[in-house]
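Limitations

Structures in this collection are predictions, not experimental determinations, and the ligand pose is part of the prediction. Treat each record accordingly. The example that follows, with 3-hydroxybutanoyl-coenzyme A as the small molecule, is included so readers can see exactly what is and is not provided: the inputs are given verbatim, and the output is the predicted complex.
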Amino acid sequence: MTRSFEKVGVVGLGTMGAGIAEVFARAGLTVVGVEADHEALGRGRSNLESSTGRALAKGRLSEAEQAEILGRITLTTSLEDLADADLVIEAIPEIMDFKRTLFTELDRICKPSAVLATNTSSLSVTEIAATTGRPGRVVGMHFFNPAPVMRLVEVVHTVVTEDGLAEEVAALARRLGKTPVSVGDRAGFVVNRLLLTYLNHAAVMLENGLATREGIDTAMKLGVGVPMGPFALLDLIGLDTSYEVMCVLFQETRDRRHAPAPILRELVTAGLLGRKSGAGFYDGEAPPTPPAAGKPTVTSVAVLGEGAEEFAARLGDAGFKATTTQAGADATGDAMEDADVVVALSHTPVIELAARLPHPGRLVGLHLVGDKLAEVASTVLTSPEATCAVEGLAKIVGRVPVHCKDRAEFVVDALLYPYLNDAVRMYDSGYAGMDDIDAAMRLGCGYPAGPFETIDALGLETVRDGLRALYAEYRDPAFAPAPLLDQLVTAGVRSIRGLS
Ligand code: 3HC
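Predicted complex:
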């Protein structure tokens, strides 16, 4: 018999819990929101009011509708009020001991038929379920921040979940207007396993001084089309939550890339948790501004590499004396000798070329990504003036410059390719199908495309070769192309999605 979910409990009314309560109430369900004490309950109430107030301010909700939604939500500090709920979902902090204690209590209080759900980001649902006398009726129901906006819900089943329950919970997610993706119980599930690994990688990159916080955020937004750069997103998720998720991932995988970047620990310890505490990587909610580019003071520019002619023509139109040249035999030729700066259009490091020039300080690498971004790579020999001039030139050709060090795959591809590789490994492990992984990343994170769609768009060989370059540079085994990707390239297969 199909269960009916009409009354739900939400325990924990922080950012996620309040968002989840709103989602249930919007779908017409009766909601009981529980917080630990009156102070926390007050914060929960204001979370609910500000989220629905936002929709009201945008004209997406009338005052009467807002009142109706909030009217469906009762707030309490007593778990006992959940005795007759059909489903209870918790969104308390990511600490296993807290969850175990809560589920033991919920199991005692809630009616035997009630389903207990956790919104955990990464903790073991199986372990949480084992603290109850009803492990078959404990599932994961993982929402994404902001819960009222993001369309994905990961429905997590364990080896002991009752037959048919995951489908019923998925049907409930659909009733909420969400798209469910059903997955097994593995640290990070689909999205956090891929997303947080990438966000942590960005934090490591920042610590290594590859580029600035604003630069990395700008590069990913303009170069990949993600709605938020990694640091703005870490601030949205919460640095404490992100840190906890990384710890759980590391504990399961012992993969060095899952060790939380030290800067996360430092910020969390300092109480800088992101938006919820008013500051994290960024202060307040101010969106990152693209880095300023200096006004080019140069007059003559030598350009080489793929697309040099078009680039030089654009500079010529703008009044510069721009000549094209080749990286090979005449690398030390007149054009390079005389030019104020040398722009090497390249997607690989340019130090080797710089080292062959008479004036290596004048050479700057420029990687044009998509049609908006230019990664400006300066080598250890590049002069600050040359870097500044090339940033200005990038602006003149209509691109936003992001300065970075001269390292394999610079910023965007260095972050993108390992994430794509992780998705291939996830698929190859049998954990989730390509369509589900693609949908999860699109609907859970607002990505313009899922990882397999992105691999097909970029070309399998391009991604494989980029990963090889990263592996050669950093020697991290996780950057070595997934065997499946390598084999598909070798076999001449052009679409990875053709396999699904
Ligand atoms: N609460 C409620 N609604 C919100 C909101 C919030 N916090 N933030 C934005 N919205 C609504 C707006 O009201 C607006 O609604 P409308 O289209 O009906 O007018 C809509 O979302 C778009 O908002 P804005 O125009 O203000 O801003 P953006 O277009 O920049 O979108 C964003 C904001 C939706 C947050 C977008 O930047 C985005 O999709 N970012 C990626 C978020 C993401 O990756 N989330 C997943 C994080 S991982 C996670 O949560 C898992 C956890 O376990 C760690």
